[in-house]
Design goal:
Distance between the termini: 17 Å
Bound molecules: cytidine-5'-monophosphate
Largest sheet: 8 strands, parallel, barrel
Strand content: 15-25%
Helix content: 40-55%
Shape: globular
Radius of gyration: 17 Å
Number of strands: 8
Order of helices and strands: EHEHHEHEHEHHEHEHEHH
Mean pLDDT: 95
Strand order of the largest sheet: 1-2-3-4-5-6-7-8
Low-confidence stretches: none
Length: 233
């Protein structure tokens, strides 16, 4: 498994995406397509970015009954993305169904990653709204273990949780971590942030970086800085 920097393409149209990607000239960053872009442009945007030679993390966070998720994953597997995801709270059975759906006839499949508890959920909202009365970090680790039991490849989590997830689920269980900021940058609405260098130290396998790159005056320089700090290249 290769560690990498994933750029979050949080744009609402293909014109904005291609204007952004064209700045990279020959370079092909690993990119994340989320709900905003996918719902705006549909599966065609995924195919087009793939044709341009990028690796893709399709971040649609599926959560439904096992049969529906299995069938949806079978459709997504034909898009030939490199990584996709779902909510671990959909249960182990749902995650197993997802894996079955995602696996192609020749046995290959994209990496499948679980969201544990969203980083926008805190202890208070989890207890008050979800009626889960356990410490948040225990819930995150339990969901990570469920994802591992179901056969998934890893979880989305905070870089601050990456070490603990590896401790519980093993070094090969992948951690994909948003919430990354440069030491001298704006944190925006993210709460618990780390620098790319710190994320590397904490054991993140993939960092997902949006605004520090997409909103930078020079996005290519910002991407290169991220790669240098995170991969040491
Ligand atoms: O702009 P920024 O670097 O904060 O973007 C982070 C990206 O990672 C966004 O696309 C956001 O939706 C996503 N993400 C996150 N926290 C999670 C899961 C996904 O920030 N727990």
């Amino acid at each position: 498994m290769n560690r990498d920097v994933i750029v979050a393409l949080d744009f609402d149209s293909k014109e904005k995406v291609f204007a952004f990607l064209d700045k990279f000239e020959g370079r092909k960053p690993f990119v994340k397509i989320g709900m905003e872009l996918y719902y705006a442009e549909g599966p065609e945007i995924v195919k087009e970015i793939k044709r341009r030679g990028h690796k893709i993390f399709l971040d649609l966070k599926l959560h439904d009954i096992p049969n529906t998720v299995k069938k949806a994953m079978a459709v997504l597997s034909a898009l030939d993305v490199d990584m996709t995801n779902l909510h671990a709270s959909g249960t182990v059975r749902m995650m197993q169904g997802a894996l079955e759906g995602l696996t192609r006839a020749d046995g290959t499949r994209p990496m499948l990653i679980a969201v544990t508890q969203l980083t926008s959920t805190d202890q208070e909202s989890m207890e008050k709204d979800l009626w889960i009365e356990k410490p948040l970090d225990e819930v995150v680790m339990h969901y990570a273990e469920n994802a591992k039991v179901a056969g998934l490849d890893g979880v989305v989590c905070s870089p601050l949780e990456a070490g603990k997830v590896h401790g519980v689920c093993g070094d090969n269980f992948v951690t994909v971590t948003p919430g990354v900021r440069f030491a001298d940058g704006d944190i925006g609405d993210q709460k618990r942030v780390t620098t790319p260098a710190k994320a590397r130290e904490l054991g993140s396998d993939f960092i997902v970086v949006g605004r520090p790159i997409t909103a930078a005056e020079d996005p290519v320089a910002a991407y290169n800085r991220c790669v240098k700090e995170f991969l040491g290249e």
